Amino acid sequence: MRTQVAIIGAGPAGLLLSHMLHLRGIDSVIIESRSREAIEATIRAGVLEQSTVDLMTEIGAGERMKREGFVHHGFELRFAGRSHRINLHDLAKGRVITVYAQHEVLKDLIALRLRTGGQIHFEAKATGLEDVTSDQPRVRFTTKDDEDKELACDFIAGCDGSHGVSRAAIPEGSVRQDYFRVYPFGWFGILAKAPPSSDELIYAHHERGFALVSTRSPDVQRMYFQCDPNDAVDNWPDERIWAELQARTAGEGFRLKEGPIFQKGIIPLRSFVCEPMQHGRLFLAGDAAHTVPPTGAKGLNLAAADVHVLARGLSAYYATGSTELLGDYSRTALRRVWRAQHFSWWMTSMLHRFHEGTAFDLKRQLAELDLVTSSRAAATTVAENYVGLPLT
Ligand code: RFL
Ligand code: PHB
To answer: What pLDDT does 357 receive?
Structure first.
């Protein structure tokens, strides 16, 4: 089996890359360990930056997103029950965000890829990358019938998320450096059948801990609250979840609209970057190379930004033979990655309850709120980072 670009992973990074390459006449094959059904049912991100929306639209994957996504012109910071609005549209010169679930993005991309002749091998697990520093790299994988196969290619795109196999093909220490931060808290996320409680997202700071009110549709709401990352979902019956969310978002007469909770999960919060994002003919993109805590809503958007840079490099190579843009991939992508890391860390540190040094942290967090609410320059910085930098 042979293709031009072997892509490991059918997440946002792998699927977007495959389609962008297709539009430039470059062949790719995607190896994905999970089933299509599992991918399309996994609940994750919800916020698309302006440039992700523009990219989806440009490649012909934006039709349903335009119809069913929700455009938000601002979001709310809520401290001690008082609401402070960040007017994204105004501060970020017309740039806004769209709330549209990641699994809906994936459904649209998979359908588009298959409709246009794309090759996606579901339930096929990459087990090893070979000869990545030669000009004939290969991906070993196991099919769903347990057959061992090899995919020969010109380039490998490692889009296999934070638990994939690609990153390990960059020798740790001599070439690869990993940068980590683990937070002492996680997020408890729910989906509830209920009407929206707010027109915009609410990021709530509270002495009991952070809470986030988001949405999915007129009758499904997405909410999160800060928890112990080692807590168990079973410790949280619906009544306890609603009591916690109500307490953390209360104030100025606000009350969440409750309903049956049909999905619960706990995620740890981490910051992670691997440098460089390229080794020989292997290019990492998305969560395979970096993770951000979800507070800044950047993960999926960074995956899209990475593959935008990578697709341009690959198309320059196939059009002219030049490796100049490809050689710059890691440097170009990492610049945005570290900006997003900083913003996600900052949002996290402003909004969460810290176990140690709570009194100091609380004063510091109030000073940050004061800055953002009294300085237009500071609010503009928040808005520009939240809606995302234009693609480079
Ligand atoms: P993905 O989506 O993890 O896809 C990787 C794919 O690779 C497959 N895979 C393999 N395939 C073959 N062989 C192997 N050996 C393989 N190993 C793995 C996996 O099955 C999978 O299908 O990575 P990608 O494409 O880089 O996309 C990254 C995003 O999924 C991620 O950053 C976001 O979900 C993060 N995130 C958010 N990002 C945002 O931009 N906005 C948000 O609002 C937002 N909210 C969130 C989030 C992530 C969350 N969780 C659950 C971590 C909210 C949450 C709760
Ligand atoms: C979501 O709707 O899932 C969501 C929204 C904003 C975030 C993270 C997740 O910062």
So the answer is: 63
